[in-house]
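SEVERITY: medium
COMPONENT: batch folding queue
REPORTER: lab tech (J.R.)

DESCRIPTION
The queue accepted two submissions in a row. Attaching both inputs and their returned structure tokens so the on-call engineer can compare them side by side.

ATTACHMENT 1
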Amino acid sequence: MAALNERETGEPDPEAIARLIGRAAAIVFDFDGVLAESVDIKTTAFATLYREHGAAVEEAVVAHHLAHGGISRHEKFRHYEEVLLGRPLTPARAEALADGFARLVKQGVIAAPPVAGAPALLAGLAPYKPLFVASGTPEEELQEIVAARGDTRFFRALHGSPRGKAEILRTIAAELGARPDRLLMVGDAASDHDAAAETGAGFIGRVPPGDASPFPAGTLCVGDMHPLAVAAEALFDNPDRR
């Protein structure tokens, strides 16, 4: 299916969005940056944890984090320790970093505003399509965050790290008795796109207005969740969802 790119055309293609939603056996969302405006909270947390090592390390940590959205924090910590600081990541250090990161971000993510259009989209899709989350956040923490935000009711299951997203997509497909290429992934990071490409799942990218797209040319992209909510409303002819 030919897909238009919002960064190239200025507008997402509503027909392409409706086709992808309509054919999907299930829709799988990344969380940070797709359902919650929480990416900056985690960026600040990574910077804070490595600030003591100097501006150059802090800047490298932030650049790596932003370029590798959707990757688990534990993988990032290993990179920062081994590559940037030149030392092994010990179990004690890994635990201290994970605990410090969780303290810095959890309440902020719970309180983060939703991505525009996300509440209407979830409410409109949930009666018609199985919905899932596939996140780089540790699974138990993800479940606590989504529950605290009052959104658990929308989802069939919430999947987080340590499993990778391609593995999660395959697990969801197997649970549904569907092929992975019948899933639709909505994500904001190259790792989300890579997981969809690896499994054959459909993909829609979220690129906030003014940001550079991390996705290949031709990827169907939206600035927020409003275009998906509008497409879902038209597709399912559900006037009560507003």
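ATTACHMENT 2
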Amino acid sequence: MSIFMAHVVIFVLQIVQLVICIFIVLDFYGSMKLRVPYLSVRKHVLLHLYREFNFSSESVVYDLGAGHGRVLSYLKKLSPTITAVGVEFAPLPWFIGTMRQFFSQKEQRITLLYGDAQKVLLTPATHVFMYLSQKLTNKLAEKCVKELKPGTVVITCDFFIENKEPIKVVDCSVPTERLGRKLYVYQY
């Protein structure tokens, strides 16, 4: 390899490192701004979630705080006819999810939007999922009241919506897990 090619390779690697560092800084900033740590839905919760949503072929599912889209990918795999839309504020999980979708099978693709869930219009949703902090869950619940159509099902994991009675609370407890213990099911 020539010296010129070696310099080109080193330059490209440095650019990649810079991009990764920028994503990490933006991810940290996003987490600190929203005060929401990265919470991954545990595998044992996913089947409970699927059962509670009870999809039809016209279902439009929104995941607010979708991370890399694992929940929506799971739901889409079990119900290929649903429309699945995720919203993620942290750039690193969003980027990872976008790359995963790029390489996934076309019929199992989901839409991952980068941005603030408080600024995304929820009116198309028939189903909404949230696994966020208690504070952000309550803030987005106010948005749900304003934008969701009557009959829309909202499910939150571990954090309940204050001032709204769930129609069902699903116990997903596993003795070895501290997260993913309850699903709160609401109907708007």
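NOTES FROM REPORTER
The radius of gyration is 19 Å.
No errors were logged for either attachment.
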